[in-house]
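Example 3.2
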Amino acid sequence: MQLPIHPFCSLFDDPGTWQVFASGQAEGRLGPSSNNNGPVGLRLNYDFHGGGGFVVLRRVLPFTLPQTFEIGFQIRGDGLSNNFEFKVASPGGADVWRYLRQDFQLPADWTEFRFTERDLPFAWGPAGGGAPSAVEAIEFVIAAGAGGAGTLNISSGIVDFVTLDTLSSDSYVVATYVVLTGTSFSSVLDLPSGYTLNYNYHSGNQIALVKTVPEPGAWSLLLGGIGLLVFSRRMHRHWTHAKIAKHAKKSAFE
C-alpha cells in the first residue's frame, strides 16, 4: 500500500513551488537536482557576475513548530566560499529567524545538516525575540562573499520535534490538517498512561494528545497510516519516519 504524503515530505521535490529572487548583478536559476545517485531535490545555479548581492530561494509553506525542535536538510554544491543563510518567517513576514554561516564552503558530497531552535536565533521584527512558532515561509540565501558562480543542491527536509519536559498539560496539539487521509496512526508507541489521541480535537482539524488521567510520561508516534507532520518526521521522497527524542541532538552545523 502506498502511503499518502504530506507536502512537507516532498518539500524540495518540485522547483515550481519555489521562487528565486536576486539583487545587484546576481542571478539565480532553479531546477531539479540532476544527481541520479542522490536524493531528489532542488538545484540552484547562481552567478554573482563579478559583483555582490544575494540570491534567495523562497517557499510559502505554513506550519507550526513546538518550543523545542531540530530541523535540517541535505545539501551539496560547488563554488567559492559565500555566506549561507536559512530563514523562517512568521505569517505576514514581519518576524524572521535566521541561521547564518559566513564564508561557508558548500560540501562536494551530500551532507546532512541539523540544528535546533537554539541555532535559529531571532533576527528582526516586532516580536523582539523568542523562538519561531507559526511559520509561513522558508528561505535559503546565498549572499556574496568571495562571489563567483556555483551550484547549491538541497534535498531531504528533516524535522524532529523534541519534548524535554514531563507532560503536564491537559492537551498537546501535535498536528493540524486540511484533509485527513485514513482514520488513525498505524502504530503508536509509548503513549503515556493517562493520555489518548484525539484525531479531531475540538472539531478543528487537529490531532491532539489529550489527558484522561494525570500521569506524566514520554511518548512517540510512528507515522504509518496518515501523512501528516507530527512530533517527529524525516522528509524523504519515498519514505516517512516519525519519532520523539527525549534529548535534543547536537547540531551538525557546529
